[in-house]
Amino acid sequence: MDQQDKTLAARFFFKNCAVSIHLPGELRLSRTLKPSPDDVVLNRNFCPENDPSVFIGSHNDFYRFLDLSTPSNSDCLRKLSAIGYLLCNKLPRTGFRCRGFVCVNDEENSCANGKSLFARAIAELNNPAFLNGRINRNTGLFDLRGVDERTTVAVLDGIHISQTNLDRLYSICPGDWRIDRKGFPELVLERDNAPYLLITTNTPAHRFLIHGSAIRRFVPLGFSSFFGVENPVHTYFGHSFFSEWNEEQWHLFDNFMFYCVLEYLRVFSSGIDIFQII
After folding, report:
1. Do the beta carbons of residue 247 and residue 44 sit within 8 Å?
2. What is the tens place of the pLDDT at every residue in 10-41?
3. How far apart are CA 109 and CA 266, in angstroms?
4. Angle at CA of residue 150, ends 93 and 155, nearest 5°
5. What's the sign of the alpha-carbon dihedral 64, 65, 69, 70?
6. Domain spanning 49-276 has what CATH number?
7. pLDDT score for 33
8. What residue spans define the domains of the chain?
9. pTM higher than 0.90
């Protein structure tokens, strides 16, 4: 693949994504394909690989993490599709039910098994807002401060799944987002401009799946107990993800993530809602 072909391939990768490419290989987090002062320029370039075997396999830290932390083939398909969906922030949303994803445990009493790391991976290629699950005293709903017009994915990390909290989630998914900004006018993000929602919880999958309304609104992403307090991810791999990655691991990560985008777009273009069949 010559340089011109790689440039074309890169533009295709990023056509519908939260990330756009401008200068040769330059990655920008953006809602538009045109450069903007609000863009976040990543400190690495992107060079697409032609052969998926280059970035799919145990030599890719993130791919190996997904393989080890995923309890079933259906969970694996949901995670790969979720990556594609959450990075496709420029897709039209009309007619597609799914707006939120919930990272859940496959077993009781699991913790530190990679759910937050998965959310961090999604955030690496988005303009994220990490929310701590606090309740706004004025509204009785989740405090969405930290979300603004540039936010493309909101991460609610470590919330407890109860009927009360589910009712709070239903109020923001899939409608407009109303953000109370202390000392400033309320910010309203209409449905098509609202960020996608990614939730992590230590609630096991079987307890989440008893809530019929939740199943209709959210896609559960199962995590096994392979990793945990006694087998931390960073100990197993010998280094921390992201902060201690070398250039090669970032190259493998970027190519794998956008391969998921291409596969999701391929299914999306056929008119199939992949989350209804897996």
Report:
1. yes
2. 455 555 566 666 666 677 776 665 667 777 78
3. 37
4. 75
5. negative
6. 3.40.50.300
7. 58
8. 49-276
9. no
Residue 167 token pair? 């009712």
What are the CA-CA distances from residue 36 to residues 15, 146, 185, 195, 245 (Å)? 16, 20, 25, 19, 28
Angle at alpha carbon of residue 62, lines to 60 and 66, rounded to 5°: 115
> Strand, helix or coil at 251?
helix
SS3 222: strand
**CA 97, 17, 60, 121: dihedral to nearest 10 degrees?**
-70
Helix (H, G, I), strand (E, B) or coil at 45: strand
Cα–Cα dist 253/244, whole Å: 13
Kindly report, residue by residue over 65-120, the tens digit of the pLDDT.
999 999 999 999 999 999 988 888 655 555 444 568 999 998 888 889 999 999 99
For residue 273, give both structure tokens: 């809602």
Helix (H) or strand (E) run with residue 204 in it: strand 196-204
Average pLDDT over residues 239-259: 94
Q: Which residue has the tokens 């290989």?
A: 25
